[in-house]
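We emphasize that the prediction below concerns an isolated chain of 147 residues; any contacts that depend on oligomerization or on bound cofactors are therefore not represented. The input was used exactly as deposited, without trimming of termini.
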Amino acid sequence: MKDKIVTGEITNMDTGETTDILPFYLFRGNFELNTLVKILRIQSFFHREDKSRQIAVDCLALDSFGFVFKLTMALTPKCLDEQKKILSVIVAGKILAVRGDYSVLPDNEGGISILDPTYSALPPEYSLEEVEKIFRINNLADKNRLI
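Result of the prediction step, given as a token string:
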């Protein structure tokens, strides 16, 4: 059991500040989130220290009843070509179907995120016009949602 308890430290590479990771029991339940997302913002990173790549995507997503929630997609391309391919498909304003393992953290620690999801164009059974309208009207955080 102890091998499933995650502990350690994390260091901010900009400030050098080191913080303890609160111990938690890692349980991979293979639970998936399957949703439609509207891409808001994309950030792409190359980490020189370990030569890894990361793409962080801020989205709005729909739950099973059409309510809108914030979602972050974290993608980890293995090479520059894969990164370019992802960035050619995932662009601001686009609506995609996504599916993958997810985690739910407090909002100040990242909120709901999905790691390396599969993604595809809006399935044909959905109308792009209707889905855009759902995102606009049901986004309760947008004060202009009914205009």
